Amino acid sequence: MAYNSNSNLKSPHSLSAIVLAGGKSSRMGQDKALILIHGVPLLQLICNIAGTLCNTVYVVTPTPEKYQHLSLKHCQFVREVPLPQENLSNPASTKITLPLPHGPLVGFAQGLAVVQTDWVLLLACDLPKLQAEVLQDWVRELENIPQDAIAALPRHAKGWEPLCGFYRRSCLPVLNDFIAQGGRSFQAWLAQNSVHILPLPAADMLFNCNTPDDLAFVIDDKQ
Ligand SMILES: Nc1nc2c(ncn2[C@@H]2O[C@H](COP(=O)(O)OP(=O)(O)OP(=O)(O)O)[C@@H](O)[C@H]2O)c(=O)[nH]1
Ligand SMILES: [Mg+2]
């Protein structure tokens, strides 16, 4: 059996996590990864939850030095690098590099390249209401997911929730192909592939803290 069914779901070789911390935080006006939620930096909160399920948590960012002072157990940094632009119709452009940040899909691909486990839990760093219990329930489902599904994700009316769910390590080649052809959208990539739907019992778990108003809402929320 690939996943333990008891409350300690860590299984040494089955699951790792990638936490993305390389965005611009332009709407927040300050680095979201470092904002304090009830005294805890948001990136640390997310990594600690991921660390309850996974033995290795990769933090993907172009600037690891910004986060080295945090208490990030089980974490390794993956330093994100600029992506050579691959425009097949114009080979001369391969010398141009894409500026950072180049978006979460490319950050995920660079993190996935170092993952050793069959499945990886991908998380944004701006999910202050993330619930370990829901993630644990999802982990229990992983062994029953059809082989052709590249990912297992919650869904909302407009599409997938790509930054809080699970991906097979084996999807890296198709992901790299998509990126090499200029693709940068998770929704567009996922639409081309088979994806398993995960139930979302608590919709507010995916509350995205993008703006100062979002932050005030989270901090005021006593729950
Ligand atoms: N590693 C990495 N993470 C990214 C990149 N772009 C976005 N992210 C992460 O993806 C998650 C969702 O990011 P968004 O909230 O959509 O965007 P953002 O750039 O952080 O913020 P805005 O500038 O306000 O859009 C966050 O965890 C970001 O840190 C990137 O280029 N590289
Ligand atoms: Mg966001």
Q: Any overview of this molecule?
A:
The chain contains 6 helices and 13 strands. The protein is of the alpha/beta class and 223 residues long. The strands form 4 sheets. Strands 5-4-1-8-12-9-13 form a 7-stranded mixed β-sheet. The chain has a two-stranded antiparallel ribbon with strand order 2-3. The protein has a single domain, classed as Spore Coat Polysaccharide Biosynthesis Protein SpsA, Chain A (Alpha-Beta Complex), CATH 3.90.550. A hairpin with a 2-residue loop joins strand 10 and strand 11. Helix 1 (42-53) runs parallel beside helix 3 (132-141) and helix 2 (104-112) crosses helix 4 (172-180). The N and C termini lie far apart (36 Å). The chain is globular. Bound molecules: guanosine-5'-triphosphate and magnesium ion. Guanosine-5'-triphosphate (GTP) is lined by residues 20-28, 32, 60-61, 80, 101-104, 107, 124-126, 163, 210. Mg(2+) binds at residue 126. It catalyses: Mo-molybdopterin + GTP + H(+) = Mo-molybdopterin guanine dinucleotide + diphosphate.
Task: Please supply descriptive tags for the structure shown above.
EC 2.7.7.77; Molybde_CF_guanTrfase; Probable molybdenum cofactor guanylyltransferase; cytoplasm; GTP binding; binds guanosine-5'-triphosphate; single chain; Spore Coat Polysaccharide Biosynthesis Protein SpsA, Chain A; 223 residues
